[in-house]
Amino acid sequence: MTASDKAHALLGGIRKLDDEWARAIGGLGEPELRAPSALPGWSRAHVLAHVARNADGLRNLLTWANTGVETPMYPSPEAREEDIQAGAQRAAGELLADFVASAGRFEQYAAAMPDDAWAREARNRQDAPVTGAVVARMRLSELTIHLADLDRGYDLDRVLALLGPLTEDVVQHAVTSRGAHLPALRLAADGFEWTMGAAPKTTVRGSAGALLAWLSGRSDGAALDGDVPRIPAWA
């Protein structure tokens, strides 16, 4: 599959989850937005502000890949944090409108990307090279994980069920991001399999949602079968 084909498949998943987010947050008022999310220390408003700024940051990376002009995801780590905190203080209507608008801006820019741009590279916050197609995978991963973090009745298995075969890509993104924290392992779930490291001798099994929760530091892996190591949280 070409980078363009993969990106267009991922964009289909992004559009589906953007629609699901709209359903999940529709009608939220001040009390619901100020209530705690599933992320320690963050309200639901913080989660929405983070995902909105992530859309703009990843659109920056698509711009970089598309034009070749260096366009960092965020001006600095401090600016990223300040934008999230400021966004979380917005009134409910303004916060929800910003969330929807940021998602639309990402979708609109991605839809206009020429096919050959999806194989070109930008650099992520860790200064590692990422293709445009990987940026699309990053966005799908953010939407998946944080919809569960919103604590509106979604767990990761429910969210991944919406994505079908794109489940493989979301978990692969977590595997790629977390590999340095883990020994060689084989992961298996729901007909999919992922490999971490060379010649793994141990297999960890469970649902795709349980694997993703563990890989992202949102569970201790108690729902998985096998010799499950502990790993730190994934911001």
Summarize the structure.
By secondary structure, the chain is mainly α. The chain has helices at 3-25, 30-34, 44-67, 77-88, 92-111, 132-149, 156-161, 167-178, 208-215, and strands at 121-123, 129-131, 185-189, 192-196, 203-205.
What does this structure look like?
With about 240 residues, the protein is mainly alpha-helical. It has 2 domains: about 5-155, Four Helix Bundle (Hemerythrin (Met), subunit A); about 165-235, Nonspecific Lipid-transfer Protein, Chain A (2-Layer Sandwich). It contains 9 helices and 5 strands. The chain has helices spanning about 5-25, 30-35, 45-65, 75-90, 90-110, 130-150, 155-160, 165-180, 210-215, and strands at about 120-125, 130, 185-190, 190-195, 205. The strands form 2 sheets. It has a 3-stranded mixed beta sheet, with helices on one face. Strands 1-2 form a two-stranded antiparallel ribbon. Helix 3 packs parallel to helix 5 (about 90-110), helix 3 packs antiparallel against helix 6 (about 130-150) and helix 8 runs parallel beside helix 9. The longest helix has 24 residues, at about 45-65. It is globular. The chain starts with a helix and ends in a 20-residue tail after the last helix.
